[in-house]
Amino acid sequence: MLDAAISALGILLSPQHFGYLLAGTAVGLIIGILPGLGGMVGLALLMPLTYGLDPVSGIAMLIGLTSVTTVADTYTSVLMGVPGSAASQATVMDGYPMAQRGEGARALSASFLASMFGGLIGALVLTVTLPFAVPMVLALGTPELLMLTFLALGMVAVLSGQNPYLGMLSAVSGLAIGTIGSAPSSGTFRFTFGTDYLLDGVTLTSLAMGLFAIPEMIAVLSRGGAIAEERAEIGRGWLQGIRDVLSHKLLVFRHALIGALIGFLPGLGNSIIDWVNYGIVVKTAKDKSQFGRGDIRGVIAPESATNAKEGGALIPTLMFGIPGSGSMALLLAAMVIMGVEPGPTLIVSHMDLVFVVVWSIAIANIIGTAVAFSLSGPITKLAFMPFSKVMPILLLLISLGSFQSSQHMGDLAVLLLFGVVGWVMRRTGIPRAPLLIGFVLSGLIEQYLWQVMSRYGFEWLQRPGVIVIGTLAVAAVGLSIYSKSRTKPRPETGTGQESVGGVGR
Amino acid sequence: MSRETPQRASRSLLPVWDRNVLLGLVTFGLLVFIAMWLTSAGFMPGARMYPRFVAGVGVLVAALALWRVWTGKEPRGGAGHELPGRDESVRDVYTRALKLVASIALYYLGILLFGFVLATAVYLVAFARRYGESWLRSVVVAAVCVTLVYVLDKTIDLFLPKGLLLSALF
Questions:
Q1: B63 in contact with chain A, both atoms CB, cutoff 8 A
Q2: Which of A63, A144, A293, A400 lies most in the core, judged by the most C-beta atoms within 10 Å?
Q3: Predicted confidence (pLDDT) at residue A182 exceeds the cutoff of 80
Q4: ipTM for the complex?
Q5: Closest approach of chain A CAs to the CA of B112, in angstroms?
């Protein structure tokens, strides 16, 4: 494994691959700064560029992007009180009051550094799990993998957002959209409505950008285009922020571990992670008096946790080919496009690629943090740019990217259709991430289902592993629905991003 | 299903407009899953099993969701972006959103007819003017963006639609 790690680092540091990593990191920073847009939109934007790329370059670019969006999204949270993405909602609680009293720089520097350490610890967690991965994935047959996929999809459906039944409807809708086109087992064309465009099914890029990018534009501009009415100055305290993180090392470590653990569980995305960690830091602090008024611990804890999530979320994605969040679904799809099949084969035969992922997270976090520190002035100006100036350029890029997926006007029609659907889902509280994950998993589930039914009939349901995972699935979904029906609803706080990463991841 | 009552409507945290849209969307979903179940009966066995499975689960879940929305038990968190009961005219939001969607649809129609470059230039200028930019600034921004797209097209072999009308003319 050490050989694979060293070899992966060597490959990644070659000029071409490193260039793609830098490009992904730069796009991630810009996307993270723009309020409402996050890693998912960035991934969807860059996906068309990965067609034809070698896997290392493509993976480095995409991982570079996803690793730093949560570093950059802090600007608007701290300076404007508007979460840059779902991952920085809790940061507003103490970051914005700090900026209001002239300590914006302190909050930002603490946040950047905590994010970086969180990201590095997340990468470490991913590395530590790898030795256990090979025997675990080899022990699972197709029936167990099918049930595991149901477990993950079920958890994503009921845990993303506050409406489990609507989440389930969203996930099943994604599965249904995935049935459009040619049937893998027989080649029969299904639900194509006589159009040539649908013979290959709906394109993932158009669907993802439609669901996550267009609704953000519509939402901001339909409210008049203003992101925030007030903003604070960046203020002072860059060095103090660094000292704060160094004096709260254990806090960073503890919350990064919690973040990685939550990231591992499908369905528990950024907005859950940051609030859970904020809740824990408040609950465990001796002096709670300053929380909500500008306590630096309220910035450090959620920021280190949300960035550590990436490492945890990659574990099921890489090991089983089961994404636990929308951004992981896109990453998985992009890897498949590049000819890399996440899952047991990847873990057993291509460990070097797995380490490319690990190194990309680590290096992107370090570079992202360095850029966030050194270019804070211009970056802040970008964050304050009115959305009406950014929107047409984004629409241009999104349309261009969407059109490249199959070079058919149908791509743009799908983009707009799902843009409207996504906006309605966003407004009415239907989580969008389950739809995307259902769509990405649809082909895999059909393939698994066909294999197990052909080989075992209904007897696959009697296998011990299937019974255990199935019981877990029913218990997890049932308990989640029960606990959600018992808790009081909370209003969303700002970005319209559901818990499974939403746009943020 | 019992009649809609003001109590049920008010139990939901959504504004009435959003709630009606949600009810419509979930009902549409239910109908689509029923149609999917019926249509997939005509496929070959290998192609039929999975859509029927999805449609069956879909009908069940959509019916449950419809019941939850109808009785006001979902959605529980209000709208995704806007705080429930926020002081805004929901109707205005829908109107503005509709106008924006219509403008994007026109842009795509323009791409279909006149090609990507021309339609994009016109859209960028029109959009910038709509949001109060000067003519000069609007044209400069559009020119820079279109030039960048053109350079990308030439350097990384992007495919840009030429437009039906322009293709027919030239």
A1: no
A2: A63
A3: yes
A4: 0.87
A5: 7
